[in-house]
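Input record (one chain):
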Amino acid sequence: MRQNRKKILANDKQVINMPTVFRRGHNIKLLVACIQCSCEYTIGIDSYWNYRKKHGVWLCLKCRPKDRTKLNALYATEEYKQKFRDLHKDPDYVSRVHNDAVSKKIGESARKSWQDDDKRENQLAHRRKKQFKDRVSKWAKGKWADTAYRAKQLELRSSDEYVVAASERSRALWQNAEYRKKVIEILDKARPKSVPPQISSLQLLLYSVLDDMGIEYYKEGLETIIGPIITSNNRFEGYSWDCCMVHNNKRIY
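The corresponding structure, as predicted from the sequence alone:
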C-alpha cells in the first residue's frame, strides 16, 4: 500500500518535493503547491493523501470552498452557545486567554496579516458587500436595543479615562500625514462638492445670543478649523468647531 502511494505521489504534479525514505511511525512532510493559487506549503503526507484522494486535487485553506452550513447550524444550537457562555465564565480560561500577552500576540498577527496587499484587499472587498453591512447593522441594532448593554456602553464612554484615551488616539492618528490624506480623500468621495458646513439650530441660537451680547466671534467655517487646512472647490476640510470666540487676542473654541 505504501509503495503504491509512493509511486503515485512521485508522479503527482502538485508534489514539489518528497522524502526518499518512508518510515512507519515517522511524521513525513511533503512540499506541495496549491492547484489554484500555486502557493507552496509543507503538509503531512497523510493529510495530503486523504484530501487528494477525496477531492481529486489539493487546495490550500485559502482556496478551498467555504461551506459553513454545518458550522452555522452548530452555532445556532442553544447547547453550543451555553457551552461557550460557561467557558468564558471560567476564571482559569479567562486568565489564560484574556491577558496582555495574548492580546499583544493577536495584535501583531493582525497587523502582519494586514500588511499583505491581497489579504487586505479581500477583506475590504468583503466588507463593502451589502450582505456584510446589513449583517453588521442588524447585530449593532440588536446590541443597542439591550438596555443593559446600552447603559454599560454609555457609562464606559462617558468616563474620563475613556474620553482621554480616545482623544489621545485621535490626536496621534491625525499627526500621521498619510492617515490625514486618506481621511480627506474619503470625505471628498463621500460628500457632494461645494457644500458649506451644516449649521444646526443650536448653533444659530448660540450665534444670536453672542450677537445680542456684542461678543466678537467666528461662525463655523474656515476660521474655526483646527489642524491642517485643505481647500478645494470652495470647500474646507479638517476638524471644525461650531464657534470660535476671541478674548484678550486669544481664540477660545
